[in-house]
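Please, structure for the following, as tokens.
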Amino acid sequence: MKVLVTGVKGQLGYDVVNELEKRGHTAVGVDVEEMDITDSAAVDSVIRQADPDAVIHCAAWTAVDLAESNVEKCRLVNAVGTENITAVCKALDCKLIYISTDYVFDGEGTRPWEPDDERHPLNVYGQTKYEGELAVEKYEKSYIVRIAWVFGKNGKNFIKTVLNLAKTHDTLNFINDQIGTPTYTYDLARLLVDMAETDKYGKYHATNEGGYISWYDFVVEILKQAKIEGKTVNPVTSEQFKTDAKRPHNSRMSKQKLVDNGFEPLPDWKDAVHRYLIEIEEI
């Protein structure tokens, strides 16, 4: 199977290419230098030349706070770019896997979000990813895979931020009223390639298993596993920690549909953190 992967320089794209090659598939990795997804002619040319069996679309504008002051730039990447890719996949009759986010929901309540729940984004990033979803879901050979709290080897992420802060701060303040589950890109890449090997299209949620936690809980576990002692971690509310973009309080996502369709869920998030810290040589 030949698969074109967008956003290959990012955390997820990097791991997806490695997983494809590990299984003997042909991976064509592209980033903005090889294919500017906002340029429809470039997208058409590059994908047609690759002639893939599937496209795994990882590229996105993910700077959530910056999106609030760069609405059109964010929309161009997340919505228009995704429309461009969908159009070519449809023309070539190849599978499309689009990576989306829990931010397409309003983040209220405590019930885990189901894949077909109504979407009401609460910030620019979520709105543009929702617009991308609207383009993709019109194409029958497509998957929409929503993830949250992503960490991986290739790039910046929350775990690396926490480890860096712990080197210079004895007291750390982290939010305890936003609840969700992390997603390790190494584990997610395995699932995405599993999906590409099937035709069980539709919307899915894919984060690591192991229950729902707050960012505060996540930090406590990261420091524990990294054996960093002598730090004080304080739980704070979203009200006390203002950001440009409003964040969802409820990022819980139901992954039952994965099981129902025969896909293997991602491992426990604590196990994922352990393997990741080994990978980046922090333990």
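The longest helix spans residues 71-92. The mean pLDDT is 98.
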